Amino acid sequence: MSCLDDLANTSEVNVEDFSCDLDLSKAELPIVLLLTLVLNILSVIILYKLRHAFQSTDTMMVATLITNDAVTSLIFIVMWLAGWASCGCIMVVDIFFCSAFGWLGTAMVMWSAWIVTIMSASRYLALARPFFYRNHVKTFQLKVAMAITLFITFLQFTGPFYGTAVQYEYYSENKVCAYDFAPGHGEASHRYILLVITIEGFSLIGMVLFFNISIVIKLRRVNVVRPEPTHTRTDTSNIQTKRTAFANVTKVVSAVYCICYAPFLIRLLYDVIDNTPHQNDPRHSITMTLLFMSPLLNPMVYVACNRRYREYIVQTFKKLCKGKETLVSDSSGLGTQTTRA
Hints:
mainly alpha, Rhopdopsin 7-helix transmembrane proteins, two-stranded antiparallel ribbon, 12 helices, about 0% strand, globular, disordered C terminus
């Protein structure tokens, strides 16, 4: 209790925010994060098992998105557990811990928007510009694009380290640290940085919508003019089927991304215009929860939109059920033999 005693003597800190009680009714993120971590770990395992069923570029992009979602969830879970175990003290006393984890978590949440954009652009080029895609778009180029966007995203959220933005905020209800998205809580530079983030977010959503609408139009045209498959075009047909299946996954993932991110960006734009100095209104908690729903829904999209994912899950459950039946029958037989003896 020495930490809480020290905080009690500090007028700048509201000690009531530092509760050791585990009240999930007041915290919307922990349950979402735990489910997200479990589902994404399962998705990584399934994707590894089915890696030969997809093209290498498709596998790499989906694996990157899944891994990013899982790591992001793990970072926030670590913060939540540390905050709860220390009654929030570690987040306030150890500024480095709060800032470092808040920086990593916030940047990786935002980086997922870039991943979805690159996925959509890749699918658009594969369907609309197949020759250009085949000759110029390789796994290496996609990795470079993702590495560059990751670097840019991390760089964007370094403002609190240099004093150009407000220090990373401790959210006492969820017991996590993250970027302070209240424009009126700091200097003008903090507000301008949030405006840039908002414009960037709307630009990415616009690109994702353009790419996916173009994909839908292209697929409809292909379905109308596609000739009957022949035996000599089996390999080409299989490649086209894989590309179409991945395009369907990309479309739904992109739709989930837009639904989850757009309300947050609209709220952020309103706050920037209004210069809101806090994040205490219901719209703040609702849009923030929606933001974290995207990585939770993505694994469900893989299952719903990909037949191989569904088949693998069904086969796994069948094997588990058969294994249990075998164990039960073996144990029953062993018991019978023992009785006869």
